[in-house]
Amino acid sequence: MAKKRKRELQHLRQEPSRRRSYQLGNTNPSDIYKPGFPMNILSNVKLFAAFGVLVIASMIVAAILTNRGSSNDANADDIRTATPDGSATASPSASSTAKSFTAADSVIDTTKQYTATVKTSKGDIVIKLYADKAPNTVNSFVFLAQKGFFDGILFHRVVKDFVIQGGDPTGTGSGGPGYTTKDEPNEIANTRGTISMAKVSGASEFGSQFFINLKNNTALDYNNPSANKFYPFGEVVSGMDVVDAIGASPVGAGDKPNPPITISTITVEEK
After folding, report:
1. 138-183 pLDDT, tens per residue?
2. How many domains does one find in the chain?
3. pLDDT per position as a tens digit, 197-239
4. Could you tell me which of 116, 148, 136, 141 has the C-alpha nearest to residue 271?
5. Residue 48 domain-assigned?
6. pTM for the predicted model, two decimal places
7. Do 119 and 204 sit in the same domain of this protein?
8. Which residues contact 105 (CB under 8 A, 6 or more apart)?
9. How far apart are the C-alpha atoms of 207 and 197, rounded to whole Å?
10. Residues 156 and 65 in one domain
């Protein structure tokens, strides 16, 4: 046998012996040192990498849950405002409302007649107000109009063949004036073109949000068997074509018109 081949065989025979000698020396297997946790992980590259991924993933999940919890806590005491179909959405707190008042000043004379001209990005809407039938409601509406409360805000909700809704300074459908006014029950129906105040389902008071009926909405009337009754305080006498144009506008999330439709000003005339 060639010397080279002989040396290769000797090498192959010796390698296992050397390996055993290196691993065990002259000790019993039970005497060999085995590292504990976490050093056993550090000595295993694959296990160490998997452990690292698990730690990072846990930190990301914890951060997400923390942010989510903070958001929920911040909204826990939010005011809730309504839509005329009785639904409600969480709203910013009153302190976040740019235009806020503690109460409406007395600004009308119930022996006189009032009309409100709502200038919008679609045209003008003229509304006759029922100061004799809903004096407190009309007074609040006129007070806010005189203070410029409605200037520059959106029609934030449009539901085709139902209503167009505005009066929220935040444009979210959940803002208000900082105070509420109690219902003034009457037997005026929510016919096409009448204007009523929006409120929380079952509530007996409202803020600043109003809606104009696009059709006869008898389900909202004073004789509705449920607690959700809405009492008109005026009617459109000019510009119903503008109301219909707003009502036919394309909408996005939350029934908000897209592109937006704004109220430039609401001016009130006394006769």
Report:
1. 999 999 999 999 999 999 999 999 999 999 999 998 899 999 999 9
2. 2
3. 999 888 999 999 999 999 999 999 999 988 889 999 999 999 9
4. 116
5. yes
6. 0.67
7. yes
8. 143
9. 8
10. no
Q: What is the secondary structure of 65-123 as a DSSP string?
A: HHHHHHHHHHHTT--EEE-TTS-EEE---GGG-SS--SS------TTS-EEEEEEETTE
**Range of the structural domain that residue 55 is part of:** 35-78
Strand, coil or helix: 128: strand
Structure tokens at 13: 């025979």
215 exposure class (CB count in 10 Å sphere: 0-12, 13-18, 19+): middle
Q: What is the DSSP string of 227-245?
A: S------EEEEE-HHHHHH
The one-letter amino acid code at 127 reads I
Q: Do 74 and 110 sit in the same domain of this protein? A: no
Distance between CA atoms of residues 76 and 270, nearest Å? 43
- Distance (Å, whole) CA 27 – CA 33: 11
Contacts (Cβ under 8 Å, ≥6 apart) of 242: 120, 122, 123, 124, 125
Domain-located, residue 21: no
